[in-house]
Amino acid sequence: MAALSIDNLFDAAVRIQVLERSISLTFSKDFVRIKFPTTRRLAEFLGVPHYYVLPYFAQMEEQDLITRAERVGILTTAAGSKKMLALIREKYADEMQEILGPEIFSILTRED
Predict the structure, then answer these.
(1) What stretch of H or E contains 34?
(2) What pLDDT, in 10s, does the model give residues 12-25?
(3) Helix 102-109 to helix 78-91 angle, to the nearest 10 degrees?
(4) C-alpha angle with apex 84: 51 to 5, nearest 5 degrees?
(5) How far is the C-alpha of 51 from the C-alpha of 31, rounded, in Å?
(6) What would the pLDDT profile of 64-111 be if each residue is shown by its tens digit?
(7) 9: enclosing H helix or E strand
(8) Helices (H), 1-112
(9) 5 φ, ψ to 5°?
(10) CA distances from residue 40 to 7, 45, 51, 75 in whole angstroms, order as listed
(11) Across-strand partners of 35?
(12) pTM value?
């Protein structure tokens, strides 16, 4: 069983995106929101019961890293997107560049 933490859940979310070769982005005026896998998908991927991941999602909401949108799913906030994009830049650059293409990858992951 995987050790759970907010960092591990962000990492698992990116690994799922890499595995599925898909990332869903929503653009707003000030930042990009990234769609998180469902809590059930993350639990299945990590090999833990679903109820194990739920408290971490509550913490992520409290820390303003994610938001839940009815009928849309779980999306990153500005802070959550920054965290996820830093993780992508540091650990999954090659894989995500293949998925996003070099131009979009460069724009999304540039450090301001």
Answers:
(1) strand 32-36
(2) 999 999 999 999 99
(3) 120
(4) 35
(5) 31
(6) 999 998 888 999 999 999 999 999 999 999 999 999 999 999 989 887
(7) helix 6-20
(8) 6-20, 39-46, 50-62, 78-91, 93-100, 102-109
(9) -160, 170
(10) 17, 9, 9, 15
(11) 75
(12) 0.91
